[in-house]
Each structure stands twice: as structure tokens, then as C-alpha cells.
Amino acid sequence: MKVKGTILSSIQGFVKENFPNRYEDWINGLNATSKKFFTSSIMAADWYDYQDGFIEPSVLVAKMFYNNDLKKSGKEVGRYSAEVGLKGIYKVFVFVAKPQFIIKRGGKILSSFYNPSALKIGEERLKGVDVHVTSFPDITEIAEYRIAGWMEKALEICGVKNISIEITESLVLGDERTTYVVNWE
Fold first, then answer.
1. Has residue 148 got a pLDDT over 80?
2. What's the pLDDT at 108?
């Protein structure tokens, strides 16, 4: 499995921005391959190894800054990724788009950053939608919650209030898919 360089850049940016005094400790805590990625130029459009480019650095963020809470860490990095990724012209577009449209675009977004992966939209409600990740080899809890955090922040940028995202099925737990039940007011 591979991830785009922007995934690595968002993890790196998250640590630099939120824990600047511990950034060097984070870099030094990475395995040799991961450390090489983060101490050289990360190319946004290049593909990187999922384990060394995403899992290793993400788990270290959870360990160092969130008391090993993979859910909290994944969610916070996902939120940061959406905030950074949906800037400029994208932020204006997201701000005027309907929430369902943004979530539907998530399927194209997911597969363009995680290869291979697939996302499908399930039941749509006036103020909610079910999102199904149907394919994502080697998905982990931290990846599931990063996706949830990204969706939550993207919806906040849309101006949506009182967002709740519940994972009711999980590939990590052996279900056939991961289901996010997303609701808002």
C-alpha cells in the first residue's frame, strides 16, 4: 500500500505547528526509513510506503503527544490535514458547497491519497450521510480516525455545526467495511 507525499507533509506540519519544541525528538524517534522521508524533501505528488510514511510517524505522534491514544491522534492529524489541504481557493469552494457534496468528493480524495482504497456513499439524509470505506488494505485504527477527523474539519469549514461521526463498522475489527455515520445540524 502507498500514500501520497501530502499525507507525510501533513503529519510533519502537524508536529511542527503543534509541538515545535518536540519536533526533533519526533524525527529522532522514527525508524531509519521513516526518518529519511522526513529529513529530505517530501514530494507531494510522489507515492510513499504506507507503513514507513504514514503508520510509523502517526503512531509516534500518538505515543509522544496523545498518551498512545490512536483515535485522538488520528482525528487531530486528520483535522489538521483538512484545514491545510482546503485552503485558498479550495476553502472558498468548500465554504459554499453543500455538506453532502463535500463528503461525496471524499471518495475521489481518499483514493487519490491512499492506494489502493475505495469509498462509497451510503444512505443520504437531509442532515447526514453514511460513508463506507469498502477497500483499504492494512487499514489501522489511526487511519480510520484520521479519515473521520478530515471529514469533521471539512464539514466545519462548510459552516456545518454540531457534527457527529460514529464508526459503526470497522475493517480493523474484521467487518466487511468501515462505516462512518455522519450527522450534523
1. yes
2. 74
Task: Collect contacts of 25-32 with beta carbons under 8 A, ≥24 apart.
Answer: 25/64, 26/57, 26/60, 26/61, 26/64, 29/60, 29/63, 29/64, 30/56, 30/57, 30/60, 31/56
The Cβ of residue 118 has, within 10 Å, a number of other Cβ atoms equal to 14
| Rounded Cα distance, 88 and 143, in Å | 26
Q: What is the pLDDT of residues 72-113, one digit of tens each?
A: 999 999 999 999 988 765 555 665 567 888 787 766 788 899
Q: Are 38 and 30 in contact (CB under 8 A)?
A: yes
**φ and ψ at 124, to 5 degrees?**
-110, 135
- Which amino acid type is present at position 148? A
| More confident site: 101 or 140 | 140
In the predicted model, what is the mean pLDDT of residues 150-172?
94
H or E element in which residue 15 lies: helix 5-18
Do 61 and 26 touch, CB atoms closer than 8 A? yes
Q: Give me the numbers of helices (H) and strands (E) for the chain, helices first please.
A: 9, 7
Q: What does the block give as the cell for 130?
A: 453514511
DSSP letter string, 138-149: T--HHHHHHHHH
Q: What are phi and psi of 123, to 5 degrees?
A: -60, 135
